[in-house]
């Protein structure tokens, strides 16, 4: 009873959309969401929080933080999480299909054209340009990530170790990701062990 | 093993371990599709990533190109479903157990360990892609220009990729 009342009084005033409404909006975001990542994050915010008011500012922020913990693209995770909140598992699946459909169709069409013309000298040269552009982009992405990495020497050591391992051996990078996660967890365990030890010794000394 | 099963398995793995954003999946895709199986040549892989950038939608959509190259439209569908399914499953679980993982020191520590590794493997992927598909000096110039423009954030990624393609076309006609 009490809970119901507080729910009514909550200022969020979120209007739940139907699955069809969700699919329509997700389809639009999938069709115009160029650039990926944080550029699309702005688009999602302006559509879902500002325009449709389907989720509150607070919930959007929480959901973004949550999405960063999941594997895969931030925007896909965020939109899947929001769709789940709005309409359950069915809405989440339908909405994700809608989100990906425009780029899926475009890629299949372009891939067909590209693979048919692959050996044409102009297409070949265009590809060489494309690949160079992609390498440049990847370098920029790494630059951005390095700036976001917490400035602790442990993080740089882990990154450097992964880089050297990756360059020296034909390793599947999945192993490196797992090792990185374990290194992070191990650091916390060691630190908390030391903290406990010094807390025990503290009063005696 | 059936080619669709192989595709599904590879991309499910990539989907599950692609922590750290869409770009984190690029080295995993490169390892699976170029280094381990030879499904794509290095320059075809470059095209797959580039197409993922010039089209709307997430980076991981490059999986669609790889699937298409390997086994046609059905392959494209298999790879696409497989790479996105783990995201949905994990978001569902995170939603359910959010209160248990939120703010936990250990969750944050794991991400702090993963992030530098992700930066390192993306750099490794860039180096390997560059080494295997660079043939001329102008490509080096494109790399430097694209990286500088992308870092300055003055030009969107899609435009940059389109621009580097235009440079390639021009170089073809200039009869280098």
Structural features, described:
The complex is a heterodimer of chains A (205) and B (176). Helix content of chain A is 82%, strand content 0%. Chain A is mainly α and 205 residues long. The relative contact order of chain A is 0.06. By secondary structure, chain B is mostly helical. Chain B has one domain. Helix content of chain B is 81%, strand content 0%. Chain B is globular, with a radius of gyration of 18 Å. The model of chain B has no long low-confidence stretch (mean pLDDT 89).
What brief labels describe this structure?
heterodimer; A: 205 residues; mainly alpha; 2 domains; 8 helices; flat; B: 176 residues
Spell out the blueprint of helices and strands.
The complex is a heterodimer of chains A (205) and B (176).
Chain A: H1 2-9, H2 19-32, H3 37-51, H4 57-69, H5 74-116, H6 121-148, H7 153-168, H8 173-204
Helix pairs in contact in A: 2-5, 4-5, 7-8
Chain B: H1 3-17, H2 25-36, H3 42-54, H4 62-101, H5 105-133, H6 137-152, H7 157-173
What's the short version?
The complex is a heterodimer of chains A (205) and B (176). Helix content of chain A is 82%, strand content 0%.
**How would the global form of chain B be characterised?**
globular
Mean pLDDT of chain A: 85
State the domain count of chain B: 1
Helical content of chain A (DSSP H or I, runs of 4+): over 70%
Extract low-pLDDT stretches of chain B. none
Helix count of chain A, per DSSP? Answer: 8
Determine Rg of chain B (CA atoms, Å): 18 Å
Q: Could you spell the SSE succession of chain A in H and E letters?
A: HHHHHHHH
What's the mean pLDDT score of chain B?
89
Q: What is the N-to-C succession of helices and strands of chain B?
A: HHHHHHH
Oligomer category: heterodimer
> Taking Cα atoms only, what radius of gyration of chain A do you get, to the nearest Å?
23 Å
Largest two-chain interface: A-B, 100 and 112 residues
Tell me the strand percentage band of chain B: under 5%
């Amino acid at each position: 009873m009490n809970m119901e009342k507080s729910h009514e009084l909550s200022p969020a005033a979120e209007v739940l959309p139907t699955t069809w409404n969700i699919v329509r909006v997700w389809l639009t975001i999938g069709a115009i969401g160029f650039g990926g990542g944080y550029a699309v994050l702005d688009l999602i915010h302006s559509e879902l929080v500002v325009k449709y008011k389907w989720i509150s500012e607070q919930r959007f922020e929480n959901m973004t933080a949550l999405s960063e913990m999941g594997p895969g693209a931030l925007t896909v995770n965020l939109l899947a999480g929001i769709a789940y909140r709005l309409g359950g598992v069915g809405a989440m699946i339908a909405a994700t299909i809608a989100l990906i459909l425009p780029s899926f169709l475009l890629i299949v069409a372009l891939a067909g054209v590209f693979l048919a013309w692959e050996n044409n000298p102009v297409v070949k040269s265009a590809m060489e340009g494309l690949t160079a552009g992609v390498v440049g982009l990847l370098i920029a992405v790494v630059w951005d990530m390095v700036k976001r990495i917490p400035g602790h020497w442990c993080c740089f050591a882990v990154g450097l170790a992964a880089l050297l391992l990756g360059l020296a051996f034909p390793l599947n990078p999945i192993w490196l990701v797992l090792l990185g996660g374990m290194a992070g967890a191990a650091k916390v365990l060691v630190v908390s062990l030391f903290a406990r030890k010094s807390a025990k010794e503290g009063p005696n000394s | 093993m059936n080619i669709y099963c192989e595709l599904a398995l590879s991309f499910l793995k990539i989907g599950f371990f692609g922590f750290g954003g869409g770009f984190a999946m690029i080295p995993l895709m490169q390892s699976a599709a170029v280094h381990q199986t030879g499904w794509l040549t290095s320059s075809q892989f470059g095209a797959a990533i580039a197409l993922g950038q010039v089209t709307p939608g997430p980076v991981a959509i490059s999986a669609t190109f790889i699937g298409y190259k390997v086994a046609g439209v059905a392959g494209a569908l298999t790879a696409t479903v497989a790479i996105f399914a783990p995201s949905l499953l994990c978001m569902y679980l995170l939603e359910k157990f959010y209160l248990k993982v939120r703010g936990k020191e250990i969750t944050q520590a794991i991400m702090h360990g993963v992030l530098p590794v992700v930066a390192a493997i993306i750099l490794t992927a860039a180096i390997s892609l560059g080494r295997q598909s660079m043939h001329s000096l102008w490509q080096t110039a494109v790399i430097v220009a694209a990286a500088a423009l992308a870092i300055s954030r003055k030009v969107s990624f899609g435009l940059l990729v389109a621009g580097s393609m235009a440079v390639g076309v021009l170089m073809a006609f200039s009869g280098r």
